[in-house]
Amino acid sequence: MSSNNVARVLVVGGGYVGMNTALRLQRKLKQELRQGTVEVIVVDPEPYMTYQPFLPEAAAGSISPRHVVVPLRRVLPQCKVVIGEVTAIDHGERRATITTLAAEETGNGAIEVAYDELVLAPGSVSRTLPIPGLADFGIGFKTVEEAIGLRNHVLEQLDIASSTRDPAVRDAALTFVFVGGGYAGVEALAELEDMARYAVRYYHNVKPEDMKWILVEATGRILPEVGPDMGGYAVRELRGRNIDVRLETRLESCEKRVAVLSDGSRFPTRTLVWTAGVKPHPILAASGLPLTDHGRVKCTAALQVDGAEHAWSAGDAAAVPDVTAEPPAKPDEPRPLCAPNAQHAVRQSKVLAENIAAAVRGGPIVDYAHKYVGSVASLGLHKGVAHVYGRKLRGYPAWFMHRAYHLARVPTFNRKARVLAEWTLAGLFKREIVSLGSLENPRAEFELAAGTGRHNEAS
Fold first, then answer.
1. What average pLDDT does this structure show over 389-397?
2. DSSP secondary-structure letter at 326?
3. Following CA atoms 217, 63, 381, 51 in sequence, which dihedral angle do they give, to the nearest 10 degrees?
4. With contact defined as beta carbons under 8 Å apart, do 419 and 406 qualify?
5. Rounded CA gap, 201 and 392, in Å?
6. Quick one: pLDDT band at residue 4, thresholds 50, 70, 90?
7. What are the pLDDT digits (tens) for 182-211?
8. Most CB within 10 Å of its CB: which of 33, 109, 250, 259?
């Protein structure tokens, strides 16, 4: 519990904003942390931070899964890392209720933690719709587990198609449907199609033209962040690789492993990847703090929760006014908000840590101001699009910029060096096409041997 002599900072979420804020607080408040006058607690359900822009490359096998994540305990030695989930926040009393793994095992219930400064950075969760069959057959693409699971699944479908004589089973196994034309959907599809097209050269009876890759987008364009011109180029690039891009089309249902689209098309498929947007984390609704109509926390330009002292937020969870945008035409209209993307999250975490350190020490706080410089996106190996500082790039230059930008942004020198080494080795050797689907159920073989006697010994 917080004492009168210790200023406790509670960081809810160990993602990009939460981890980087705590990392910077370690440096800014080094003396106070060493003396024990300040305590920083980071709470997250996972013991690592996932660098999500690298998930498509991890799924394609270009980067090892362990290099996409950053262990929190290793990079935050001066902070207390709690593996658990914040289920309720009483900011009036400045207390948070946390359910930990130990609480679940012992049945003693959740624990309460008092705090002096609250940082809400839980990120976002996948936004799903009540589409028949989606909960049963859909595959997400937001965690490293989902990315590696999808890689294994795609390679497993190639094995199924290669080993069956049933044309219906083969066709369904070789049909891959992705719903959502944002970064996650386009990059995941492009990287996995690239990988699968390379992998089929090792299958004697599967050819690249046998596969069907379908991208379903409800609006009239994909990758809106890179602008209409580069978005249009991305569509042409994907279609040039025989990827079926369907704009202004929605998924109506996917019952019985049949994807039914709003244009009347029906695709029997064993792979339906859902990347159609995200929504704020549910803890925000349980915090009692002011929220926008879209469920994000209302914040000031200084990243303080509007109307709630000693509460802060940034990243996907926060609705932060963009002070660099043109002011609204009418005085009563709200100022435009910063987009909930990685570029703002990176820079907001720096300002957030500076302001919290100032609040702890009694100094002045500053507003967050950053003009959006553009976006980059990968379309597979050596292919990409970019719209940065008003310049439009495509093909290899855009792909190189995509890698250079994210290599610079991935946290810690350790991870930068490992990722760069893997990219270098990947340029010298052939791709790995091994499926390790058994990782998802590692005890299956032992359970089979122990329970069914598949490997019975003579008694």
1. 88
2. P
3. 40
4. no
5. 34
6. low
7. 989 999 999 999 999 999 999 999 999 999
8. 259
pLDDT band at 458, cuts 50/70/90? very low
Whole-angstrom distance, CA of residue 184 vs CA of residue 56 = 8
- The Cα 303–Cα 120 span in angstroms is 10
Alpha-carbon distance of 310 to 367, in angstroms, equals 16
> Backbone phi, then psi, for 364, in 5-degree steps?
-80, 150
pTM listed for this prediction:
0.87
How many beta carbons lie within 10 A of that of residue 343, not counting itself? 18
Q: Are 314 and 348 in contact (CB under 8 A)?
A: yes
> Helix, strand, or coil here: 262?
coil
Angle between helices 227-240 and 183-199 (to 10 degrees): 20
Sign of CA dihedral 223, 224, 230, 233: positive
**What's the token pair of residue 18?**
């939460």
Q: Which amino acid is at 328?
A: P
**The residue to which tokens 């190189």 are assigned:** 400
- Summarised one tens digit per residue, pLDDT across range 299-357 is 999 999 998 999 999 998 999 998 888 877 777 777 788 888 778 888 999 999 999 99
In whole angstroms, what is the distance from residue 221 CA to residue 243 CA? 15
Question: What are the residue ranges of helices labelled H in 266-364?
Answer: 342-361
> Tell me: the pLDDT tens digits for 400-417?
999 998 898 888 899 999
Residue 437: predicted pLDDT = 62
Identify which of 336, 367, 370 has the alpha carbon closest to the alpha carbon of residue 352: 367
Number of H helices, E strands in the chain: 14, 24
